[in-house]
Structures are given as structure tokens and as C-alpha cells.
Amino acid sequence: MLSSVPSHVKLRLGIMMFVNYIVWGAWYVTITNYLTTALHFTGTQAGAVFGTASIASIISPFFMGLIADRYFATEKVMAVLYSLCAVLMFLMTRATTFGEVYGLMLLFCLCYFPNVALTNTLGFQLVKDPGKEFPIIRMMGTLGWIFITNVVGYMKWEGTTGQFWVALVASLVMVGISLGLLPHTPPKGKGTKFNARTALGLDALVMMKNKAFFFFAIASVLACIPLTFYFSFTNDYLNEVGVPNAAGKMSLGQVSEVGMMLLMPLIFRYLSVRAIIVLGLVCWVVRYLLLAFGDPGGNMWMFYGAILLHGASYDFFFMTGQLYTDQEAPPHLRNAAQGFIVFLTYGIGMLVGSLLSGAAVDYFTHTEAGKVVRDWHTFWLSSSAMAGVILLMILLTFRTSAKIRPNEA
């Protein structure tokens, strides 16, 4: 059955996703390189700045539940938030101290990350069949990420404020898209009472009585720690060892993610949830070993292998986990359950990972003849070991034969 939603609406939503992820992708994998090379921040400081995204992921549900769902039209909220993002990115181009940078990035993330949820919600509301139509719209965001990371890498902006100027311009474009392209979408929760427990998805705590889901939830938090090691410092590492256009090469990870998304329905047909998640964590162990032993010479293939494993590493764990959570949740708790998993993973797990990754970089850093030297080999080996411990925990505790079932029409 064809959707009754006009093609031009879906096109506008696709453009919205494309530019929205440019705002994010312009700096996310390169900011620690800028902080450590241009501003000479310590690894701990750089990791703390990177962790502002996780703090925003914890706080955003409160904003969504209190403001966006109850008082103002979605497109107007987005326009205001993107305007603030542009201002904060301008100030970031001039900030030099840790206190300035941390404060500005925290404010920026608090303004930006609600828009990730708002754009998703807008897409769900405006298409007739979200299960079939929304993935293509969301894929435009991945293409936007691939595009901008290649631009940043090609222009050699990883260690400069160029990445912030890109995010600034893209934020202004999003203001125009919000006010000029998107249809009016009034708040659906107007007049309802705000509940912090519901906003954080904590109503879903009842699901923790299920032993399998309990261990899955714990593993989800822990798995985000080594994940953040990759996002926080891979670009810094590749630049330091002399890999040209590191940001552009890292975008191959998003290319593999697109390919893996297309394969996931076939994988779900044959493998259980447990098997898929185990395979995902095996990929994490292997990718960190490849980073540890790779080099920009004869072993450059190891770097490419580590980057291309992103699709399986990410989708096997996170996409499967989100679908498993939705499947296990009672119908009335499905939204709460997704909010709960986001709170645990992108909030708690990635915040801890950001802080630990920065501390680990400093731990494996020493000075030789007045020059800062990082023991990246041991850093990545420790990351692989951490992923291996989580893999062992999953094998011992997460017992289920469940498969991801297709929704019945």
C-alpha cells in the first residue's frame, strides 16, 4: 500500500535529516583532535568536553517532556534551538581555556541533542508508515554525516576551528529549514502534566524483573564505555600516526553502517538476539586489536578494517538492542522503554566512557625530551580487553533464544 504522504514532504524531511547530521558530524569525531593539538588540553580534559554530549542526552528528555511536547510547535522549538547552536559555535571559535570550551560545548549539546529526538519524532508523525518510510529518511542523516566528515578531512579542519564554522553555518541553514520547509506541527501533549519519571523512561523499570532483560540493560551501559573510546580518540590517533584525511576515512564506518542496515532484516531472520549481540561485541574486540596493531604503512589495511567494522559493531548491538527492547516491552511501556535505554546508553554509559577514555589517554601518556608521547598501542589493547570482558559477561548471563520478530500488518 502506497503512502498518502506527498513526496515533497518526505523530500523536505530528508533534507532536514541531511543538514541536521551535518551539524553533529562536523565536530563529533574531530573535536578531541582540535582540543589536544591546537589547545593542548589533556586527555582527561578532552574526554570531559566530549562527555558533554552524554550529559545532554540525560537532560534532553526533561526538556522534551516539559517544553517541546507541551507548549510550542515543534518547528518553532527547533528554530530557536538551532539559532542558539549557531551563536554557541561562534563563541567556540574564540574559546581557548578549558572552562570556556567545556561550558560552551555543554550549552551547545543541551541545545542540539533535543533536535535529534525532535527530528525523529517529526518524521514519525508526518509519514503514514514509519516502519517502511522513516528508515530511508533517517538514512539521509547518515549520508549527511558521511559528506561532512569527508569535507572536514579533505579541508584539513580536524585540528582547527573550521569544524565549528561548518556547524555554525549548518545550524543557520536548519533555522531556515525549520521555519521555511517543515509543516506546522503543534504540541501533542498540550495540557498534560509533566512527569520526570515518565520523561526519563523510568516507568520501564518494571522490565528489569525479567532476568534476561536485566543483564541486557547492564551490558548496554557497559558496552557504551569502549564505544566511546573509539568515538573520542580514533581521529586524534589516526592523525597523530600520520594517516592522511583521517576524518574522511572514518566516514567509511557510516558507509558500512548503511550497508549493514540493509542486511539486518536477513540477519534477524536467521540469528537470535543473543547471537547477534555476541557477534557485535566480537567485532568490538577485533576492531580495537586492529587499531592497536595497524600503522599507516604496510598495515594500513588494519585501520580500514577497524573502520569498516563500525556497521556490524554498532548495528548488531544498538539496533538489535532497540528492537529487542521494543519487543520485550508491554505495549503501554514501549515509548518509556526506548527512553530508558537511551538514558542508560547514550546518557550514563557514554558519559562514563568519555571520562574514562580521557583518563586512559593521560595514563598512557608520558614525556620524552620535552615531547608528549602517547602509548596508543596499549590504549587500544586495553579497550579490546574491556570489550572482551563485556562479551564474556553477555555469554555467561544473557540467556535468551528470542529472535527479532517482524511486525504483523
Report what the structure shows.
With about 400 residues, this protein is mainly α. The chain folds into 2 domains: about 5-185, Growth Hormone, Chain: A (Up-down Bundle), CATH 1.20.1250; about 200-409, MFS general substrate transporter like domains (Growth Hormone, Chain: A). It has helices at about 5-25, 30-35, 45-50, 50-70, 75-90, 100-125, 130-155, 160-180, 195-200, 210-240, 245-250, 250-270, 275-295, 300-310, 310-330, 335-365, 375-395; strands at about 365-370, 370-375. The N and C termini lie close together (about 10 Å).
Q: What value does the average pLDDT take?
A: 85
Strand content: under 5%
Secondary structure: helix percent = over 70%
User: How many distinct helices?
Assistant: 17
Strand-and-helix sequence, N→C? HHHHHHHHHHHHHHHHEEH
Whole-Å distance between the termini? 11 Å
Arrangement of strands in the largest sheet: 1-2
Largest sheet: 2 strands, antiparallel
CATH topology of the largest domain: Growth Hormone, Chain: A
- Radius of gyration from CA coordinates: 21 Å
Provide key terms for this protein.
single chain; two-stranded antiparallel sheet; 409 residues; 2 strands; 2% strand; Growth Hormone, Chain: A; 17 helices; 74% helix; mainly alpha
